[in-house]
Amino acid sequence: MVEETGVRQRLVFDENIVKNGEAVEINNNEETTCPNKNGLHKEHQSIWEVLDYENLPEWLRDNEYLKSNHRPIVQNYAACFRSIFKLHSETGNIWTHLIGCLIFVAIAAYFWVNTEGHVSLHDKLVFLAFFASAILCLGLSTLFHTVCCHSAEVFVLFRKLDYLGIAVMIIGSMIPMVYYWFYCETIPKLVYISMIVVLGSVVIYVTLSPIFGQNNYRHLRAIVFASMSFTILIPATHYALTHGIYRLHLDRFDLFLLMGFLYIFGAVVYTTRIPERFFPGKCDIWLHSHQLFHLLVVLGAITHYIQAYEMATHRLNGHMKCSN
Ligand SMILES: [Zn+2]
What we know:
Layout: H1 2-8, E1 11-13, E2 16-19, E3 22-27, E4 30-33, H2 77-82, H3 91-114, H4 121-147, H5 152-181, H6 186-207, H7 218-230, H8 233-243, H9 245-250, H10 253-272, H11 289-319
Antiparallel strand pairs: 1-2, 2-3, 3-4
Bound molecules: zinc ion.
């Protein structure tokens, strides 16, 4: 049993080994510490064993409730991508957003091919911005979770891109709302779209700062992204006051609320690390908080698309004619 655990905690790279996050080279039955991990024979880094949390390097230690089944350092991009098809703590994170990304690629292609001639270029661009932001967010997230075990430098770079994708998706999701709420009113439409772009740029700037990505700042990240999302309530209130609550009903405000619930629930699950905090070591591969957060983000984005599509259909089918 002791020997079996010892084997699990080792990463075998042909004649090389990574133990406790440090590269160790085996040579003539002697272990020699190799501090420069680039010295590993990268072509052999496809055979590896999952590690326990305690044996991860500091920069890969994110969630202490996931006790085992972590990928070790795999300094080979091809091996990182092959790990998509293996079972470990990132498998669910990768597939939830990879499938979500492919769903939005399919929806965008269908939308583009089947959009009728009377749809204006502006309408198409608004939806295209939404699709592009969703695809970018889910795609960058998939990439981050795939290659985050490569090295500390790659981890930091792709984590920034992951957060950048979230900020872009928030911007891309808010623009269709404002565009269709103020479909015939140019000034509020431009004011609110400008507000979203300016605020979004500030959030992007913040997400790229070194402190923002640190493992123990997940509450800050949730607060920054939630605050950005909540600014949609300003144009929503304006719209409700000037057009009446009944308009909100026609614009499927129920779906808007459902989307908000899914995103907020996702943020709560992400920050509180439920359920694994109640079942340490039991959710290492499936159903841990980050995976559920990913799932809720995809469901929130699909709900948002349906709502935006219904609003657009309502406008474009002539139920709301602009006087000018
Ligand atoms: Zn993620």
